[in-house]
Every structure is written in structure tokens, then in C-alpha cells.
Amino acid sequence: MWKFIHQLASPPHFYRIAQILIPWLAVPGLLLIGYGTYAGLFLAPMDYQQGDAFRIIYVHVPSAYLSMLAYMTMAVSAGIGLIWRIKLSHAVAAAAAPLGAWFTFLALATGSIWGKPMWGTWWEWGDPRLTSELIMLFLYFGYMALRGAIDDTSKADRASAVLALVGAVNVPIIHFSVEWWSSLHQGPTLIKEGGPAMDPGMLYPLLAMILGFTLVFGALLLRRVRAEVLFRERRTRWVKDLVLSGGN
Amino acid sequence: MTAQLSADALTLFRGERCLFQGLSFALNPGELLLLEGRNGTGKTSLMRAIAGLIEFEDGDIHWQGKPVRTNRQSFYGSLVWMQHRVGFKADLTLVENLRFETHLRAQSGQDFEEVLKRLDIDRLKRLPMRSLSAGQQRRVALARMLLSSVPLWLMDEPFTNLDREGRALVMNLTTEHLDRGGMCIMAAHQDVEIGGNVQKIVLQ
Amino acid sequence: MNTEDESISMFSGIAGIARRDLLLAWKRPGDVLNPLFFFAMVAALFPLAVGPSPEQLKLSGPAVLWVAALLSMLLSLNSLFLSDYEDGSLDQMLVSPIPLSALALGKTLAHWLTSGLPLVVVSPVVAITFQMPFSVTGYLMLTLLLGTISLSLLGSVGAALTVGLHRGTALLSLLILPLAMPILIFGARTVSLVASGDGVAGGLYFLAAYAVLTLSFAPFATAAALRISNE
């Protein structure tokens, strides 16, 4: 087992395995998203309160979920990189951050668009989820800014890893405090926990979208890590051989 | 018998550039290790890496048979370091600066006044560090070394900014330290006249 | 200064470096006073921008004072490790047998004593201009007391990460502000709740718990960050 992990962590090995893995994630992911989009738009019944506007959850919920998953991926791999000094792990963290920021932005944008017909405004501070997503976006910006400010890759890796870990400890606290904050004035919430069970016709497309988004995220992440690895290993023998042989 | 300080097959990179590869040495009580080489050959980087401030790409340093990497604190309890930036606060007086040092490492118990007198800085005691010349500040850094009781001295370019007496003083103090069974690693790009056991490493 | 043969300890290290930094602050009072003036000025900006209506000021007082305090803390955090980094003191701290986390804690303690505590002391004066009743001012001071401890500790991590970087000031704010949101939320809201006559124990407990949490984690994160930044 350990041997396998060590082999996987070696850049040329990872580079090859990721290449094989990407289509296996991307194709099912895109199929699921295709099904989810069609079913979500045409098959799922209309919500009796929100009308057709609710259909944006098929993008909003998976994006919001991925903004968390990407942060966790980033923090965990940064932590592994910091503790066990695995360079590949830092490359994963570096590659995950812009993806996470992008999904966070998507969650904010769709949440805001959803809010317009629901609340009559593009932005509602009373919604704790949107507010935490906004803080989440700032966390991503901070992480990427710190990385960008340090020239030396290894130093940037470790400094941003410390930040990611401090952030990871804080994320649940931020969520909790924003919940408390908004509970004080009973703001409108889009999804209530323990609310009425969702109609299966609505739920299955949503689950398909969540899974599809996750798989595509995995594929995009691997692609980005491959590029990151190639850049970081640009002085090494195997990259030179790879380029000279014209392969990928 | 294993050496007090030993280094095996050290490799150090600064950015993309490899400074040296496979560097090994061993240091025993009473010995001086002299690092020579032109500017930019990595003397200071090697010194910083020995002090654990930057990491070797490969290789390990052992102090009393234990790897420094995992026994940092006990290694730091055994060394004092003089480098180009002396590490004193410009706003504090000489005495205030040296008093702070007593919190950082074990003290030798040498008489404070005598040490200052010997280094010819006893008249400057109440002056803020900023009003001292660069050479006088180096002398205060020497006082820090004399006042602490540690076996290993790391000296990066100790002669910079010092006048002739100052340079002679550094050599005498180092010789005395070695005679007491101390060890010293010194980076210098000028001739050093120190008797006894001297090893040289020339960085290319 | 006769050198006693007492063995050095972690506590003497913490006390020693805190003492040194306090002495430095004593010799440069501007470093302590400027963030305080900044605090008062930011607080004064608000009535000038919004208008002098006492009702409105009373309502927004806790929020404005807390935001001003947060920004003022950020201002002073920027220089926390800068001079140590520049004059080589940080190198000396790194190669000391005293754990770096203890020294970082000592420095953070001095920082809080010279920036957080003065804010707590000055805040009632500024609060008067926002028509804050005395019964509420006590809570303002208490929340600031607990909140600035966390801010100093959390900020020390950010200051350690950005020391020696170009444009570190803007970066420090970008790193620390999102992390500091919970402190702001609980600090400001708790004071508002007192003002409107609601229960406040929850907010105070949170601030106290958060201070304990940062106290137990931040020094280690700061030490790790300093090692990385000082390479």
C-alpha cells in the first residue's frame, strides 16, 4: 500500500495515471450533468411556491457544495504536503484553489439570480448561506493572493498551506457565526433544514447534478494538477524526454 | 568516536541553482571549520542551512550523534550565531539589547563589565544601538558570543567592518574559545590566522 | 547585569521578549498612538458621512466602533515582525533554544498590550460621541477586550505569513479580514443586543471561547509561518 502511494506521489507516475483517469471522470460526469440539466429543466415538476425559478438549484446547490469540497481538498492536501513534505500534494492544493473560487463565484451568482424573483433583490444579507459563500470567496482570494505574492514555489507552497489550515479551522466557525448573526433578524432562507421532503422527481436530477459536478471537478482538478506538475518539474529529465518524444 | 558535529552528503539549492552537492565534514572540540569562496558561492547559505533556517535538499547534519532535523531545540541550545545583520534593536541601548539575550540562551557567567571592557565598548553602554558604528555593533555581537555558554560558534564574515585591532580580537577570542574545547564554523574571504586544528572547505 | 546561572526557560523567554517589545514601544510612542488616532478618526468619519442624527448614530455606534477597532488592529499588526525580520533579530530568535512559538506568543502579548488594550481603554470616550449609554459601554469594553485578544493572535499568523513580502500591508488585510469576520460579528452584534436590551451571554461566551481557541493554536501557526517566511 505504502509503496503504491509513494509511486503515485512521484510526478511522472502521477502524470501518466492522471491522463488515464481523466476521461473516466469527465465522461460520466458530463453525461450526468446532461441528464440532470434535461431532467431538471423539463421533467422535474414545478415548485408550488417558487414556480420555475427554483430550477436554478440544479446549478446553485452543486456549486455551493463544490466550493466546500474544493476548500477541503485544498486544505487537506496542503496539510499533507506540509507535514509529509510531498510536493505533489502542494500541486494539488495550488490547482484546487482557482477551481474552488470559481465554483464559489458560481454559487454566489446563481444564488443572487435566484434571489431576484424570491426576495425582489439581487442581494439579501439576511441569507446566511450567501453570506458565508461570500466570505468563502474572500478566503480563496486571500489564499491565491498569498501564493501569487511569493516567488519561490516551495516557500509559496508552505506559506499558503499554513493559511489554508488556519482557514480550514475557521470555516465552520464562520458558518456558525453567520448563522447566529442572521438568526437574530429572521432573514429569509431559501432552503430550510428539516423542511418538507423533496419530490423524487426534483431530487434525482439534483443528485445527478451533484455527482456530475463532482466528477467533472475531479477531472478538471487532475488536468490542472498535470499542468502544475509539468511546470514545476520543467527542469527534470522526464519532462525533457516527454517533450522531445512529443507525447503527452 | 563520532564527531560532535557531522554533516553527510549535503546538497543545497537556492532557487533553481545548485550551490553544492555531496558536501561532508566533521567537527570536534577544539576545531575550526573555515568556509572559503568568492561572493555568491553559498557561504552564507551554508551557514543559514547549518543553523536550520533553510533546508538542505539532501543530506543531514548530526549534533552529538542525533539528527538536528528532529532535535532542533537541543542543537540551538548549543550554538550562538554572528551574522552580517547583527540582530540588535536600534532603539534599545547596548545593555538593554544584551540583557534581552540572557532570555534566549544559557549564559557563561563571565563578568559583564569585563567582557565589555575587553571589547572596548564599555563606554557605549547607555547609548542606543543606532548611534554605534557598524564596527562597534559587531563588537556587541562578539559580546553576545562571549557572554553565552555554548560550544558551537557560527560566525559569518566576522571581520567585516572591524579595524585591525578588532580583527585581531576576533582571532584571539576564537583561539581562546577553541582552547576551551569549543568549536567554530567561520565564513571568511580573507586570511585568518588562528592556530590549532583548522579545516578548510572551499566553495566553488 | 551580572549573569545569574539560572537556566533559561520558556516563561522567561516569553516574558523577556514581551518586555523588550514593550520597552521598544515606550521609546517610540508614535507606534502605539497612531493606531489609536486612526481608530478615533475612522469612527469620526461615520457621523460626517451619514449625518448627525443622534438616533441613527446610537443605532450604528457598536458596529462603527467595532469596524474601526478591527481596522486599527490591522494597521498595527503590519509591523509586528517587520523590524525583527529586517534587523536580523528574527534569525536570532529562530536559533534560540526557546521554542519559536513561545517567542511568538510573547511578541503577540506585547502587541496586544500596546494596541488591543489601549483600544479598550479609549473606546468609552469615542462611544460617548455615538450617544452610547454607560451601561452599554461596559459591554463594548468587554467585547473589545476579548475580541482584540483573538485579533492579535490571529493577526500574528497573517503578519508572519506576509513579513518580507512586497505590498505586504494590503495582503495582510486580505488574509486576515475574512478570518476575523466571526470576531466582528459576535463583537458588534453583542453590543447592539445589549443596547436593545436583549440577552448577551451567548456572544460573550463565543468571544471567550474563540480567544481560547486562537490562544492554543495561533502561536504554533505563527511559528511555522515565521520559519517559512524567514528562509
Structure description:
The complex is a heterotrimer of chains A (248), B (204) and C (231). Helices cover 79% and strands 0% of the residues of chain A. Chain A has eight helices and no strands. Chain A has helices at residues 2-9, 11-43, 57-84, 87-119, 128-149, 153-183, 200-232, 237-245. Chain A is globular. In chain B, α6 links the parallel β7 and β8. The radius of gyration of chain B is 17 Å and the shape is globular. Chain C is mainly alpha-helical and 231 residues long. Chain C has one domain (10-229). In chain C, 83% of the residues lie in helices and 0% in strands. Chain C has helices at 10-27, 29-50, 54-77, 82-87, 89-94, 100-128, 134-162, 168-195, 201-229. Chain C starts with 9 loop residues before the first helix and ends with a helix. The relative contact order of chain C is 0.14. Chains in contact: A-C, B-C.
Number of helices of chain A: 8
Radius of gyration of chain A: 20 Å
Give the SSE string of chain A. Answer: HHHHHHHH
- Into which percent range does the helicity of residues of chain C fall? over 70%
What kind of sheet is the major sheet of chain C?
none
- As residue ranges, the low-confidence spans of chain C are 1-6
Strand tally of chain C is 0
Strand pairing plus helix content of chain C: what structural class? mainly alpha
Defining key terms:
heterotrimer, B: 204 residues, alpha/beta, Rossmann fold, 2 domains, 5-stranded parallel beta sheet, 4-stranded antiparallel beta sheet, 9 strands, 28% helix, globular, C: 231 residues, mainly alpha, 83% helix, disordered N terminus
Produce the secondary structure layout.
The complex is a heterotrimer of chains A (248), B (204) and C (231).
Chain A: H1 2-9, H2 11-43, H3 57-84, H4 87-119, H5 128-149, H6 153-183, H7 200-232, H8 237-245
Helix pairs in contact in A: 2-7, 3-4, 3-6, 3-7, 4-5, 4-6, 4-7, 5-6
Chain B: E1 5-14, E2 17-27, E3 31-36, H1 43-50, E4 58-63, E5 66-67, H2 72-76, E6 79-82, H3 94-101, H4 112-118, H5 134-147, E7 152-156, H6 164-179, E8 183-187, E9 197-202
Chain C: H1 10-27, H2 29-50, H3 54-77, H4 82-87, H5 89-94, H6 100-128, H7 134-162, H8 168-195, H9 201-229
Helix pairs in contact in C: 1-6, 2-3, 2-6, 3-6, 3-7, 3-8, 6-7, 6-9, 7-8, 7-9, 8-9
